[in-house]
Write a structure and sequence with these properties.
Blueprint lengths: L1 H21 L11 H39 L1 H22 L10 H28 L3 H24 L4 H8 L5 H14 L2 H31 L2 H23 L4 H43 L10 H42 L12 H15 L1 H18 L1 H37 L9 H37 L6
Helix pairs in contact: 1-2, 1-11, 1-12, 1-15, 2-3, 2-8, 2-9, 2-10, 2-12, 2-15, 3-4, 3-8, 4-5, 5-8, 5-10, 6-7, 6-14, 7-14, 7-15, 8-10, 9-10, 10-14, 10-15, 11-12, 11-13, 11-14, 11-15, 13-14, 13-15, 14-15
Length: about 475
């Protein structure tokens, strides 16, 4: 949450004043917010995504161990730990296959590495399952998790890559202004939820059919077993973006920037793929934690005829919207402070626009840092206290409804915002490559509006919902004895 606020406050502030008002290029060293913007890419998309995936990984392992102990004894506890170890080995093997050939297609190289990692993981899981349990059931659960994890990444690419129709349609809609760019991006984001949700449902049903609740938890561990490669693919985006920023600040030749812009466009897609996996894994992890919670409070059935359960469902369905609102408002407030500071420096520091005066970069970094730390307190308290209040006041069954409602709406909303933001971003990049008029046209200006709206969607509000649904489930599981 904090990482998303940091990066988008700097990004929105730098773009609106730098490109919109001062008329200087992106990543221009004359922009006081340029350092905060480049640092923010690493804070949000590398450190933040790493923390998100690591949390999912650990939570899925904990859920699998908690359920496995009652089903398979000590073997059920050891199995997810060894699976996680296999995932590390698979990721190491996958890195050797990430090589850009003569075609120079970086996206294809990253895809190849992901496929190899998934293949090695599946083979290792097969051998491990046979060795430990002498049966195939758990293997099919793990296989469903790994397969769905890989597939969600590439379904996401269909809606966020400039090579496919969805993003091209968003770019084309810029001909009629910013409003149609916003509308078409929203439509793409909504449509993009369909296939990932179907895939998550398939993984849930397949894993439950073969191995019950323990199978769902193992499917989550399987999906997250490719985390090493997924995080590497996701980190590609900020690295390429920073390379472009350094090229611009160093005033390197334009052909260098053209190369980094192409790499950056691929990076936007890989980042969206990483977010798709993060959301899918958060959904399966939350389901696994929910299963562990239900098991710990001996909750066999959640009765929808019980009004307390319905209240829990409605409250759970509402929380992701409230949480998203808080995070977007936090970005807005921080961006306003950033904009005021950048305007002040342009006005008060002589020689900035001529390149003879040095901007006070550190002031902008301080604004983003302070905002990130301050603004995440209330959303964090909301995630921690909501299950406690509902569990104590309405009981364990109502808390089950709260968790179920938050998982369903949280996953839908996260997918929508992450993919809509990715589509807007790459639609702008598609126009900047010379399509529909190119840079400096009204079409480009309209796409910049869409990109600016999409920034807090894809990098703050969307990813933050992963944290919400997992944290609420963990709190419910840890404090389960209080609600019985």
């Amino acid at each position: 949450v904090g990482g998303g606020i940091y990066t988008k406050a700097a990004d929105v502030g730098a773009d609106l004043v730098g490109k919109g008002e001062a008329g200087i290029p992106e990543d221009d060293p004359r922009n006081p917010a340029v350092i905060a913007d480049n640092v923010g890419d690493n804070v949000g998309d590398i450190a933040g995504m790493g923390a998100d995936l690591f949390e999912s990984y650990v939570n899925s392992i904990i859920a699998a161990m908690a359920i496995g102990l009652t089903v398979y004894g000590i073997m059920g506890v050891v199995y997810p730990l060894v699976l996680a170890g296999l995932g590390v080995v698979a990721a190491l093997v996958g890195t050797f296959f990430v090589k850009v050939g003569e075609s120079g297609d970086a996206a294809a190289a990253l895809r190849k590495g992901t496929f190899v990692t998934g293949g090695v993981m599946i083979a290792g899981a097969f051998l491990l399952t046979i060795a430990m349990f002498r049966e195939f059931g758990l293997f099919w659960s793990v296989l469903s998790g790994v397969a769905v994890g890989v597939l969600i990444g590439f379904v996401t690419e269909l809606y966020t890559s400039g090579d496919f129709a969805a993003v091209k349609h968003v770019a084309e809609s810029s001909r009629t202004g910013a409003a149609t760019v916003i509308l078409s991006g929203i439509a793409v984001g909504m449509k993009s939820t369909v296939m990932p949700v179907i895939l998550i449902c398939a993984a849930t049903l397949i894993s439950y059919y073969f191995s019950g609740l323990y199978g769902i938890a193992c499917a989550a561990v399987g999906m997250l077993s490719i985390t090493g490669m997924a995080l590497s693919v996701d980190a590609y985006g900020p690295i390429a973006d920073n390379a472009g920023g350094i090229a611009e600040m160093s005033q390197l030749p334009s052909e260098v920037r053209e190369i980094t812009d192409k790499l950056d466009a691929i990076g936007n897609t890989t980042a969206a793929m990483g977010k798709g996996l993060a959301i899918g894994s958060a959904a399966l992890t939350a389901l696994a934690l929910f299963s562990a919670y239900a098991h710990s409070v001996n909750l066999k059935v959640i009765d929808l005829n019980n009004p307390k359960v319905m209240v829990g469902l409605f409250l759970g369905g509402m929380l992701p919207f409230l949480f998203s609102s808080m995070s977007i408002q936090a970005v807005s407030r921080a961006a306003e402070a950033m904009i005021d500071e950048v305007r002040r420096q342009f006005k008060e520091i002589p020689g900035i626009m001529e390149g003879t005066g040095r901007p006070e970069y550190e002031k902008c970094v301080d604004i983003s840092t302070a905002a990130a730390l301050k603004e995440m307190i209330i959303p964090g308290l909301l995630a921690v206290l909501s299950p406690v209040v509902v569990g104590i006041s309405l009981g364990a069954e109502a808390l089950g409804g709260l968790l179920g409602g938050s998982i369903v709406t949280g996953v839908m909303l996260a997918l929508f915002m992450a993919n809509a933001g990715g589509a807007w971003d790459n639609a702008k990049k598609h126009i900047e490559e010379g399509n529909f008029g190119g840079k400096g046209t009204e079409e480009h200006a309209a796409s910049v509006v869409g990109d600016t709206v999409g920034d807090p969607f894809k990098d703050t509000a969307g990813p933050s919902l992963n944290i919400l649904i997992k944290l609420m489930s963990v709190v419910a599981l840890v404090l389960a004895p209080l609600f019985i």
